Amino acid sequence: MAFYSTNEFKGGLKIMLDGDPYSIVENEFVKPGKGQAFNRVRIRNLKTGRVIEKTFKSGDTVEAADVHDTDMQYLYNDGEEWHFMHQESFEQMTATAAAVGEAAKWIKENDICKVTLWNGAPLSVEPPNFVVLKITETDPGVRGDTSGGGGKPATLETGAVVRVPLFVQTDELIKVDTRTGEYVSRVKE
Amino acid sequence: MTEVSSADWRPNADLTAIRARAELYAEIRAFFRESGVLEVETPILSRAAVTDPALASLSTQLDIAGFGPKRPLYLQTSPEFAMKRLLAAGIGPIYQICKVFRDEERGRRHHPEFSLLEWYRPGWDYGRLMDEVGALVRLALNRPTMPIERLTYRDLFRDGLGLDPWHTEVDQLRRTAERAGLRGLDGLDLDRDGWLDLLLTQCLESRLGRGRLTFLCDYPPSQAALSRVRTSGEVPVAERFELYIDGIELANGFGELVDAREQRARFQADLALRREQGRPEPPIDESLLDALEHGMPDCAGVALGLDRLLMIATGVEHIDAVLTFAIERA
Question: Which stretches make up the Aminoacyl-transfer RNA synthetases class-II family profile domain (chain B) (predicted)?
Answer without folding.
Answer: 18-330
